Amino acid sequence: MSEPHVKRIVKKESVPSRLLPAGSRDVRISLPPGFNELTEYPVVYCQDGEDFFNFGRIATIASSLIAEGEIEPVLVVGVDVDKSVRTREYAADGDLHEGYTAFFAEELVPFIAARYPVRTEPDYVLLAGCSLGGAVSLQLALAFPRRFVNVMSLSGAFYPSSQAAIAAAGDLSHLNIFMTVGLQETAFKTDRGVFDFVAMNRTARKLLEERGARVEYAERDGEHLWGYWQKDVPDGLKWFAGL
Predict the structure, then answer these.
(1) pLDDT of residue 121 exceeding 90
(2) How high is the mean pLDDT of the chain?
(3) Is the pLDDT at 81 greater than 80, yes or no?
(4) Where is the signal peptide (predicted)?
(5) Does residue 162 surpass a pLDDT of 90?
(6) What is the mean predicted confidence (pLDDT) over 140-150?
C-alpha cells in the first residue's frame, strides 16, 4: 500500500481511574486527516497502544487509507500498558483482568467520548489487539455485548481461560471478529509457557462460529512479531469500514 505524506495529529491524555491500582492510564489519540470537531467519527481502540502506534503504525496506516479514500475517517485511540502487569490485566484469568476491563468500558470509553467527537454506538467501535491484546479485546466484547461488537485480533493469545469464556457464552450472532494468525506460530514461548497459536486460533474460531459470531479468518506465513501483524492492519481497518 502506498503511503502519501499525510499530516497526522496525535494527542496524549492521562485517563484518571478509580478502578486501576495506578490511578490513571496513558492513551494516545490519532485524529483523522481533515478532522472537524462538528463531525462524529467511528473509533478504533488499540490495546498495547504504544506498540500499536510505533510498531503496528496504525495511525499512519489509517491516515493513509483515509487520504486515499479507502476508508471513512476514524479516530484511533492507543491504550498504553505497563508490560510488567500486562498478562495480569489482559489474560481472562489474570488477577487484574476484571479491574482493567471495567476501567476500559466504564472510565476510558466515556472519557474519550466526553473529549472527542466519536460515535459510541457499538457498530462504530472497533477493539483491536495483538496476542493477549486480541484476547482481551474479545473478552471485552463478551463482557459488554451491548457496547462492543467488533474485534480485530492479530494472533490472539486464546489461552484455555479465553476458550472457556467463549464456550460459556450464549448467542454471539451480534459479534464480528477479524482474526489472523501466522503459520510459523506453532511453538511460541510466552510468560506462561510454549503455545501453538495456530491451534489456539483455530479452536477459538470454531467456538465463535458455533455460537453464531461472524468471523473473518486468515492464516498465512508469519511469526509472532509486529512485522507480521503490521501487514494485516490495513485489511483489518478496511474490514471494519465495510461492516
Answers:
(1) yes
(2) 96
(3) yes
(4) none
(5) yes
(6) 97
221: pLDDT strictly greater than 60: yes
Secondary structure (DSSP) of 183-198: TT-SSEEETTEEE-HH
Helical packing angle, 197-210 and 160-168, nearest 10°: 10
User: By residue range, what is the domain housing residue 176?
Assistant: 9-241
**Dihedral class, residue 23 (left if φ above 0, else alpha if ψ from -120 to 50, else beta):** left
Q: Is residue 24 part of a domain?
A: yes
Q: What is the pLDDT of residue 239?
A: 98
Q: Is residue 4 part of a domain?
A: no
User: In this predicted model, what pLDDT tens digit does every residue of 19-32 receive, in sequence order?
Assistant: 999 999 999 999 99
> Which cell goes with 87?
498478562
Q: Beta 24-31 vs 9-16: how paired, if at all?
A: antiparallel
Does a structural domain hold residue 2?
no
Domain of residue 182, CATH code: 3.40.50.1820
Count of structural domains within the chain = 1
Dist CA 126 CA 98 (whole Å): 20
For 8-17, which contacts have Cβ atoms below 8 Å and span 24 or more sequence positions? Answer: 8/33, 8/59, 8/60, 8/63, 9/35, 10/53, 10/59, 13/111, 13/115, 15/107, 15/108, 15/111, 16/107, 16/111, 17/103, 17/107
Distance from first CA to last CA of the chain, Å, rounded? 21
